[in-house]
Every structure is written in structure tokens, then in C-alpha cells.
Backbone:
């Protein structure tokens, strides 16, 4: 069973101006002469964690990580309710990835994404297939209407986490519970901290309630981080992920030549494996692994093993020039 690589610190970092008054925090660790790889974090709005660096052999990879717009160490933070999210959409984030690649003088790179990171990774690869050498995707989220209904209506994940669902639902008055997405939106965007902080905490309580097969203790988050995470996640879900109407599966033909590994937990409550299966059916060349003893978390042993096995296998691969 593959373990995480040892902790590694960045050797370079900075803030990159991506326009619209936004700067994204980026960092690079590992081998400056190594194979380039970019890590796309989840959420949207989740920000980076130190363990994100540890899916890659630091002696072989030049590992690029960044906080997406308005979260983590990127500026300005959506934790401030006055900060507009008008210029925070999937096309903006795809453009940010390209700008960062150019800033770091990288020609092509491996794309690694988990959860929302798979959504963004697929959107990026379909927009810039000539810049992607390989893909490693964990917990596929296609953001189709049926996928969101599973999460945000009583007919889906609520059946498996009834207490957590009740806490999420009952944070909203009964008269507004027929449209929880809209009701939370009104509260999360309210300028009054007495309104938006508890709403963000309740929203994220449901969002984080089913991340792993076996329950784990989640860290305490500062209010500003919770608000940023909740605002950005709600913003994207409310707008269908800012994806083309035909969805991500319609663009898979642009990337079918890219070697890829897809990993999904059998008991992933947040992004159930039907989404990974549908992606694999559209992209049969991609290697699909369903982990029989895992949920949504990237650090669960079986999932972690397959993800690191994939980056190890791609470590020595010499991609074609096309």
C-alpha cells in the first residue's frame, strides 16, 4: 500500500495578477528540473492543504499548486462578503491555469484533480488539450442536474446521512425549505455576519459531513475561511459550474488521446461512482478504478495508493510531442 511521500516545502511561491483585481497564490516544490505537474484543489473554494504536495515523488516532479480565485491565500478573499464573485467562473479559472503555466515557462504538464478539481481539470484539458501530458482524476464531479439533486434534495444523500441532512435543512425556516439552494444563497450573501456566518457554517457542515467512508474528525475552520468556501461553492452550484450546456462529457473527444487514471470510492457519497463510470464510458481509453473500501477522501488508503501509483507510473513516461 503506497503511503504519502514525505512532507515537502515550496522552493518558490508568489502572487500572480490574473486580472479583474485578482491575484492567485501559487507555489512550486519538488525537483526544479522534474516533470511538471499541476494540482487542482477541490471545493470550489477549498484552497490548498500541505498534503496536496505529497501525491508526487518530489525527486522526480516539479509540483505546481495554487489557490483558486478568492480562496486560500489568493486575493481578495471571498471571506469578505463585499468581495464580488462576478469574475470567478470556470472560464476564468481555466484562463488562470494557462496564465500560471506561461508564467512558470512550462510547456506541458500532468493535471491532477480531486472532486471539483476533476471538473476544473476536465474543463482545462478540453480547452487546452495540447498542454496536458496525462491526467489523474479522483472523485469525478460532472455537475449535471441529477448530480446536484443527489446532494441538495431529500431523495439522495439525505437517506444515508439523515441527522446531518436534518441539521442542514432545519437551519432554514420551514417556509423556505422547498428551495434550500436559494434560501442558503440569500443568507450566505447577506452582509450581516450574524446571518452569513451561521449560514456558511451550516452549509459547510453538510458539505463536509460525508467525505470519508469511516468518520474522521474535521479541523476547526476560521469563520472567514468557511464564508469563502461556502460563498464560492454556492456560487458555482447555483450556476451549473459555469459549464457548457452540453456538459463535460460532450467534450471528451478532445482529450481521448491523453493517458488518464480515474479513481472513485465505491461509497463516495459526495460524488457517487456513477459519474466516474459515465466519464469512463465516454472515455474508454481512461483507466477506471473503483475503490471498494473508500468514500470521497483523497487520503483514504485505497484511494491514496491508486493515486500515487498513477503519478509514479507517469513519472517516467515520456509523452509524445503532440
Residues:
Amino acid at each position: 500500500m503506497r503511503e504519502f511521500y514525505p512532507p515537502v516545502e515550496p522552493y518558490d511561491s508568489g502572487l500572480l495578477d490574473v486580472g479583474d483585481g485578482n491575484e492567485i497564490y501559487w507555489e512550486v516544490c519538488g525537483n526544479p528540473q522534474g516533470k511538471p505537474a499541476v494540482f487542482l484543489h477541490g471545493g470550489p473554494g477549498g484552497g490548498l492543504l500541505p498534503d496536496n504536495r505529497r501525491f508526487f515523488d518530489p525527486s522526480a516532479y516539479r509540483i505546481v499548486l495554487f489557490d483558486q480565485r478568492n480562496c486560500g491565500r489568493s486575493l481578495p478573499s471571498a471571506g469578505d462578503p463585499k468581495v464580488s464573485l462576478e469574475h470567478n467562473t470556470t472560464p476564468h479559472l481555466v484562463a488562470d491555469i494557462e496564465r500560471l503555466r506561461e508564467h512558470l515557462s512550462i510547456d506541458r504538464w500532468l493535471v491532477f484533480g480531486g472532486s471539483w478539481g476533476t471538473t476544473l481539470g476536465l474543463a482545462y484539458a478540453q480547452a487546452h488539450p495540447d498542454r496536458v501530458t496525462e491526467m489523474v482524476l479522483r472523485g469525478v464531479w460532472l455537475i449535471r442536474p441529477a448530480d446536484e439533486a443527489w446532494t441538495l434534495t431529500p431523495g439522495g444523500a439525505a437517506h444515508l446521512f439523515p441527522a446531518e441532512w436534518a441539521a442542514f435543512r432545519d437551519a432554514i425556516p420551514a417556509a423556505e425549505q422547498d428551495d434550500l439552494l436559494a434560501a442558503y444563497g440569500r443568507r450566505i450573501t447577506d452582509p450581516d455576519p450574524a446571518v452569513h456566518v451561521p449560514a456558511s457554517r451550516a452549509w459547510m457542515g453538510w458539505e463536509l459531513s460525508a467525505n470519508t467512508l469511516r468518520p474522521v474528525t474535521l479541523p476547526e475552520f476560521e469563520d472567514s475561511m468557511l464564508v469563502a468556501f461556502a460563498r464560492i461553492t454556492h456560487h458555482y452550484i447555483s450556476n451549473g459550474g459555469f459549464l457548457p450546456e452540453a456538459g463535460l462529457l460532450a467534450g471528451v473527444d478532445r482529450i481521448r488521446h491523453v493517458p488518464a487514471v480515474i479513481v472513485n470510492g465505491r461509497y463516495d457519497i459526495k460524488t457517487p461512482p456513477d459519474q466516474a463510470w459515465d466519464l469512463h464510458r465516454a472515455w474508454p481509453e481512461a483507466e477506471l478504478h473503483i475503490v471498494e473500501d473508500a468514500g470521497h477522501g483523497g487520503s483514504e488508503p485505497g484511494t491514496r495508493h491508486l493515486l500515487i501509483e498513477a503519478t509514479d507510473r507517469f513519472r517516467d513516461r515520456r509523452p509524445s510531442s503532440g
Observations:
- The radius of gyration is 19 Å.
- The CA atoms of residues 70 and 77 lie 4 Å apart.
- The chain has a mean pLDDT of 95.
- The longest helix spans residues 223-238.
